[in-house]
Specification:
Elements lengths: L2 H15 L4 H18 L11 H9 L14 H18 L4 H12 L5 H9 L3 H11 L3 H23 L21 E6 L5 E5 L5 E3 L16 E4 L7 E6 L5 E6 L9 H6 L2 H9 L11
Parallel strand pairs: 1-6
Antiparallel strand pairs: 1-2, 2-3, 4-5, 5-6
The structure holds zinc ion (2 copies).
One zinc ion (ZN) binds next to loops.
């Protein structure tokens, strides 16, 4: 079975046990398909880090790059943007009218997605707000479409950059060793080792199981978790020191393939529960 067939099958299994996710997964499953297909078209030179700079970064436990340094294959990203707008127009009732409008704006050259992509990479919130205002589209929708479109290029860059991490000691910090963004999800592999998934570049890195993944606090009465009886594969870890939460997927309890982006969407109820208890996860705000 190839990746796309596997993705379809896995989404189907999730929907069978949690029918409430049918609509949103029908949309995201197609988004992930478009992204997978886009990977084939992406042509990017590797991001080079000079040896001296690399040494400084290693010594100070800094991420390899700043997110603004990710390279984007513009042609592939614009195509993905149009494809995702079209999918949203068909499959996501809540997003469809703005999606239709954005697709039209791009094809009529009334709006240049490059400015959107660049604002996301550079974290220029003011520019994002300006674009959203100009187009009269909610900021979160615009950012979502933009991010989903550049995500395949970001993944390609991150995979190339991973070679710089080989042989390096594990970073015991709560941020991505490639790009410095926060993890949106943790998972335990078949040996019970904990890994984190970057919310921005999808890099996965090993982290200790003890304590909070963000602030590293490890006091007994500060660290809690909750889970739902009927979903043994998920846990939500809560930290009373930094008031953050992270969703944890235990692959030993799963009867399906693990696609982090799929599980992230299929566990939005856990984010709601954690937020209701007063905890946040900035890495998950986009979903
Ligand atoms: Zn990252
Ligand atoms: Zn914490």
């Amino acid at each position: 079975m190839n990746t796309l067939e596997q993705l379809n099958k896995t989404a189907g299994m999730i929907v069978n046990s949690r029918p409430a996710y049918r609509e949103i997964l029908d949309f995201y499953k197609e988004v992930f398909r478009v992204q997978e297909e886009s990977l084939k078209d992406i042509r990017l030179p590797p991001v080079i880090i000079e040896p001296d700079l690399l040494k400084i970064k290693q010594k100070n436990e800094l991420p390899l790059i700043d997110p603004s340094e990710f390279l984007i294959d513009l042609k592939a990203a614009v195509q993905t943007f149009e494809d995702i707008c079209e999918l949203a127009a068909e499959l996501a009732p809540g997003l469809s009218s703005n999606a239709r409008f954005l697709k039209k704006a791009v094809s009529e050259k009334a709006f240049d997605p490059e400015s959107l992509f660049s604002a996301i990479l550079n974290g220029h919130d003011k520019t994002l707000q300006d674009i959203a205002q100009l187009l009269d589209v909610p900021l979160n929708e615009l950012s979502l479409f933009g991010y989903l479109s550049i995500s395949p290029s970001i993944r390609v860059c991150a995979e190339q950059l991973e070679t710089y991490l080989s042989g390096m000691p594990e970073l015991q910090k709560g941020y991505c060793p490639v790009c410095g963004n926060l993890p949106d999800m943790a998972f335990l592999d078949m040996e019970g080792r904990q890994h984190l998934n970057c919310s921005f570049c999808c890099h996965k890195w090993k982290s200790g199981r003890m304590g909070c993944v963000f602030c590293r606090n490890n006091e007994k009465d500060m660290q809690h978790y909750f889970f739902n009886e009927e979903e043994k594969e998920y846990q939500v870890k809560l930290c009373d020191h930094c008031k953050r939460f992270i969703k944890l997927v235990d692959l030993r309890q799963m009867d399906r393939e693990f696609f982090p982006n799929l599980e992230k969407i299929a566990t939005l109820h856990l984010d709601i529960q954690a937020r209701e208890k007063g905890y946040i996860n900035e890495g998950n705000e986009k979903a």
